[in-house]
Design a protein that fits this description.
This protein has about 375 residues and is mainly alpha-helical. It is built from 13 helices and no strands. The longest helix is centred in the N-terminal third of the chain and has 35 residues. It is found in: Cell membrane.
């Protein structure tokens, strides 16, 4: 008796979407290879020139273009036309992002390449007192920038934060609308107007021609306050109302709910808005020229005498180059690089503070 036997099982054909895939490291390897080729070609063409003259923007741009060509060709050979088009579109989106970053890359490269030559112990431990040629440092400008910006933050942050709390938690009607309108107007005030305003007030009530660090801090506080208000207001509004209602249901008064629930929930964003306001004013030159003035000696008294700041120092060194133009320009670039590093350190510090005070969750 013949018995029917089942035909041998055959494996299903492999899907064209999953077979012949490039390894995950392949796109990154191609990107690194493309950038290496581009940087090598641009570097060979720039032999004999200064480091600051290296065309980093062109190197990155042509490296990304070469990567798009390579990833498309290799993907069409090893995978399929559909995967090649997908990788090409992904590379185009990434290229658009890189192109948006090219001005920042060029700026950072230029500042680092020109400013690194004066990054030595003397530059960070001496002032410019009695220096007319080589040498000198920026210790007086660093102290002036830190003290003036810190005083401005001490004045602007509490005022701006409490204004934002009023607008979100208490403000209703015409008064709140008026405050919001005035804050929006202050946001667009040119920095020189803030400096002229503070200078005119002190000239009327004290004496004309007066300059001191506290005047510079006031001018910066005028510029910082609207940024803190608008940033903190938006962050306080996105705190869920359910959190407030839960606190009210437990009998917690409103002021304590704001202090213990609303502010800790939005502390990370508030710190970001504070750092944005500090970054907005720490590089101002015009209002500080009018209010804080400039000096070649170290002065740590905000209420007596003129004070030097890093933006004013860089401007003064570039405009008044003295007997050695190359040394003055090098000091100006080094001061700009120092200012960028200070802003970076302040942002890192703000991140750590926000992480420390943020409410703890079960996943932490």
């Amino acid at each position: 008796m013949n018995t029917l036997t089942a035909p041998p099982a055959t494996s299903a054909p492999a899907s064209s979407l999953t077979s012949g895939r490039l390894p995950r490291w392949a796109p990154w390897a191609l990107l690194g290879f493309s950038l290496l080729i581009s940087f090598t070609v641009i570097g060979v063409a720039s032999v004999g020139q200064d480091l600051a003259d290296f065309n980093i923007v062109g190197a990155v741009f042509f490296g990304v273009i070469l990567y798009m060509v390579l990833i498309t060709v290799i993907s069409s050979i090893a995978e399929s036309r559909r995967n090649a088009v997908d990788r090409l579109m992904t590379a185009l989106v990434a290229t658009a992002f890189v192109i948006a970053l090219l001005p920042l890359i060029s700026l950072l490269w230029t500042v680092v390449a020109n400013g690194i030559q004066r990054f030595d112990a003397e530059f960070f431990s001496y002032s410019m007192r009695n220096v007319v040629g080589d040498g000198g440092g920026i210790v007086h400008a660093i102290w002036g920038t830190v003290l003036i910006t810190l005083m401005a933050a001490v004045m602007a942050v509490p005022v701006g934060l409490m204004t934002a709390i009023y607008l979100v938690e208490y403000g209703r009607g015409r008064i709140a609308k008026t405050i919001t309108f005035l804050v929006d107007v202050m946001t667009g005030i040119p920095s020189i107007v803030a400096g002229l305003f503070i200078y005119s007030v002190f000239a009327l009530f004290i004496r004309p021609g007066i300059s001191m660090g506290f005047m510079g801090a006031l001018a910066l506080a005028v510029l910082m306050t609207p940024v803190v208000v608008r940033g903190s207001e938006e962050l306080l509004r996105i705190v869920p109302n359910e959190l407030r209602e839960a606190a009210y249901a437990l009998g917690v008064p409103k002021w304590l709910t704001i202090l213990k629930v609303v502010l800790p929930t939005s502390i990370a964003g508030i710190m970001t808005s504070v750092m944005l306001s500090i970054s907005r004013v720490i590089g101002e030159t015009a209002p500080l020229l009018l209010t804080a003035g400039f000096t070649m000696s170290l002065n740590t008294n905000l209420f007596s005498g003129q004070m030097m700041t890093l933006p004013v120092f860089a401007y003064n060194q570039y405009m008044n180059q003295g007997t050695n133009a190359d040394a003055s320009v090098a000091r100006a670039w080094a001061a700009a690089l120092t200012l960028i590093l200070i802003v970076m350190l302040l942002n890192l510090l703000a991140r750590l503070i926000a992480k420390w005070f943020a409410p703890k969750t079960a996943g932490r």
